[in-house]
Amino acid sequence: MTNYINTMELDELTHDFLSSFPSGTHMSWTEWQKEAEAYGLNENEIAELQQYLEVNKQLTSPMRFAGRQWWLTKLEIEHVELIKQYFPSNWEDEVLDRMQRGDLGYLNKDWRLEERKQTKRSVKQ
Question: What proportions of the chain, in percent to the nearest 5, are helix, strand and coil?
Fold first, then answer.
């Protein structure tokens, strides 16, 4: 999977639509889709927009923890939910630590989560 999509690779109308927002704008998919339809993007352009937003981490949802609201991608939210399961007493600290390291959303880099999973499996056996 590509780590980044340049706006110049997009359909012209999709590019124009994105250019109408400040760089790095974060909204939920429902908000993006509503704006795209109002702008006149067709089904294919909307699908292209969704892929662009996911790859460039602009397709986000709000999540509140550690005393503030964060805008997280779908993968980051999945990662947070797993952290909650395996670190129930201090999950907020665990999430903040991963955010500071830039690892939130990258499950394959989360060695502490893997260790905790293996420990829980060993205890169950």
Answer: 60, 10, 30
